[in-house]
Specification:
Elements (H helix, E strand, L loop, with lengths): L3 E5 L25 H11 L3 E5 L5 H13 L3 E6 L6 H11 L8 E5 L14 H13 L3 E3 L7 H10 L5 E3 L9 H15 L4 E5 L3 E2 L2 E2 L2 H15 L4 E3 L10 H16 L4 H16 L7
Parallel strand pairs: 1-2, 2-3, 3-4, 4-5, 5-6, 6-7, 7-10
Antiparallel strand pairs: 8-9
Helix pairs in contact: 3-4, 5-6, 6-7
Length: 286
């Protein structure tokens, strides 16, 4: 069984951008390249990866596409277009079209959790861009959706049934009991739309892993709501580095513990099947 990391980040700080990566982020405040990523992958048991944008710039997307073209373990790129500028978005999508398998755009994401407009996905201009994505067969990924954007993601999916909506990091479930209940209700509501899928990834806050009881509860909610056929696995590397080497190793161990609760067919769906379908990857990755 092959395992796809559906959520891997790289960045080169020498080129500018990435203003959110400040010295306070310690081990992340440096260039993170493909050689280091591949070393992590081999140690963690991943066979291939989807690179995911970390900056709302063309330069970030172009850099990931260049890495994908040079490394066959990279299976595709989730890049960026400006969601509220459909004309520019259309031009960028045309620019990226026609690339060979493995080095092509397979999804779009914007760092909307940092957007000053909390209702960005409901704006008319954004909906026009999202219709373009649906027409191009490109999923929309929604980062850190709870509490601002998880309900919006569900509305987008309902209004645009031809668009696949990917909830990154299960929407970032909170550890607090009251907030967790609200997150669970919103995630279940999103899962009622057949065109919504979710990533079991990034289940930490500021480098602190979710407590085991919260992790297990979130896993159970996600499995019940989506089933294995609409869940996929992602490391969110290098973000777990914020917790240090011990937290990074523990994150991998917790992944394996959760997967061990499933039978081989369901593990196959989460480890590679869902990502293969959502991103249109070669079927030999299932």
């Amino acid at each position: 069984m092959r395992t796809i990391d559906a959520h891997l980040h790289l960045w080169d700080l020498a080129g500018g951008g990435y203003t959110w990566i400040t010295p306070e982020l310690g081990p992340l405040h440096r260039t993170i390249g493909p050689a280091e990523a591949r070393a992590f992958h081999e140690a963690a048991g991943y066979d291939g990866a989807i690179l995911v944008q970390a900056d709302d710039t063309r330069a970030d997307t172009d850099a990931m596409l260049a890495v994908a073209a040079a490394h066959d373990w990279v299976l595709g790129v989730v890049g960026w277009v400006p969601l509220t500028d459909p004309e520019d978005a259309a031009a960028q999508l045309a620019r990226y079209a026609g690339r060979p398998a493995g080095s092509r755009l397979v999804g779009i994401r914007q760092l909307i959790h940092a957007d000053p407009d909390p209702g960005v996905l409901d704006r008319a201009a954004a909906r026009e861009t999202l219709a373009l994505l649906a027409g191009a067969g490109l999923p929309l990924e929604v980062p850190d959706a709870f509490p601002r954007h998880l309900d919006q993601a569900a509305r987008v999916a309902a209004d645009l049934p031809g668009l696949t909506v990917v909830i990154d990091h299960l929407g970032k479930p909170p550890a607090e009991a009251g907030a967790f209940a609200e997150w669970a209700a919103q995630l279940r509501a999103a899962a009622e739309q057949d065109n919504v899928v979710a990533k079991v990834s990034g289940l930490h806050h500021g480098g602190l892993l979710l407590p085991a009881r919260v992790l297990d509860a979130a896993w159970n909610v996600a499995l019940e709501a989506f089933g294995p056929g609409r869940l996929m696995l992602g490391s969110d590397w290098p973000m777990p580095m914020l917790g240090g080497d011990a937290a990074l190793a523990d994150d991998v161990a917790r992944r394996d513990r959760l997967l061990a609760t499933l039978d081989a067919r369901d593990r196959g769906s989460i480890c590679s099947g869902t990502a293969t379908r959502v991103y249109g990857l070669p079927t030999d990755w299932t």
